[in-house]
Amino acid sequence: MTGQVSMGERENDGLIEGDEKKIYIIDVTNRDGVQTSRLGLAKLEKTIINLMLDEMGIWQSEFGFPTTRHETNYLQANLELAEMGVIDRMRLSGWLRAVRSDIDLSRELVPTLVYVNLSISTSEQMIQGKWHGRRTFKDVVNMMTDALDRAHESGFRSIGVNAEDASRTSDENLIEFALAAKQHGAVRLRYCDTLGYNDPFTAYERINLLAREAGMDMEMHFHNDLGMAVACSVAGAKGALDAGVNAFINTTINGFGERAGNADLVSVILAITKSSMFEGEKVLDDAINLMMAWKLAKYASYAFGVPIPINQPGVGDNAFAHESGIHADGALKDRRNYELYDYEELGRGEPEIIDTGRSITIGEYSGIKGFRNVYEKLEIEFSSEKEAREILELVRYANVSTQKPLVEDELLFIARYPEQARKILTLDPTRVKAEGTR
Q1: Which DSSP category does 158 fall into?
Q2: pTM of the prediction?
Q3: Is the CB of residue 432 less than 8 Å from the CB of residue 85?
Q4: Of 177, 238, 298, 313, which is least packed with CB atoms within 10 Å of its CB?
């Protein structure tokens, strides 16, 4: 996939047509969330998250690092799932440094990848702190535009550009950076509050200014170091909409992310749809299916091995719990007395059946009898003994990868898409020794 991409192809890919501007969600759990210290996801778990995000109507998943070799098979397999229509709405995008070598290597390792964001530091703190005077802001802009040109030459489209540490970059420099990015074909600027430094008022003002001056769509990427990631994301989106451009909010499931985390996916959606800020307005991407919130949050909690906080908006155990007399009485009389939105809207409310008797699970040492027992309960039939044993072997490898009992969605995925599962589960570090790293 090579050749210059036309401006028409770069713009409005998958966006709602018309003058009305919208807020779209770009979930970065599989890129930024997995960078959380002491935590991580197996490639199978990242894939299941992509499938669930797609079912939830998320516009784009930043699903990994195209230049990281242990990601290659996973990235390729997920792109195959998109080509097959298994992931049928959501775009899959990669994160690259804004340098030519990353673009060239990503094209080599993941040749079918279409969407990317190019990232580079823009603040004086990081320019001095990282490069110690060897580069200036002008050098940063030139590196970014050179990388953008190379990305377009390589066949990437709808490219976003990330200003790392934008919140500590001057307005003048950010505007210059954004205008240069736009001139070289970028369709969005990602405003990265890398240290969670901004407040909602500043987020609104700065993003509104940038959007008006640059006339391009804006991405919000806020960290939660001061507990304001969700508020800043929504305020920044409001600033973009008021300037007449589309807004894209970066989220992670359950707020996972470096240090104190990122803007929580469910909280962001609730803030947009239920708060007073956008009351009476339909500004959120129409494809969003909030009914997936409960299932997605629970799966991410299981996969990361971190319980959902009891007071987490929408999905925490206490989100709809009432104990004091006044509250319980009021909620029973009319739920709107003490509940701003309904638990059913998040896919909650159905009883969960817990088997307290015999339990058969499948793991890395499972045999065919237990395997068949589990899959029979899932109503999966195999055409032959050979097929059953091939799926069993994949399930064993999957358990080696996750080191947890496989849940229903994982078992079903392996049975339905064994070739993609096989690729996702394949890690070959011997290639690193043979090929070297770049």
Answers
A1: S
A2: 0.94
A3: no
A4: 298
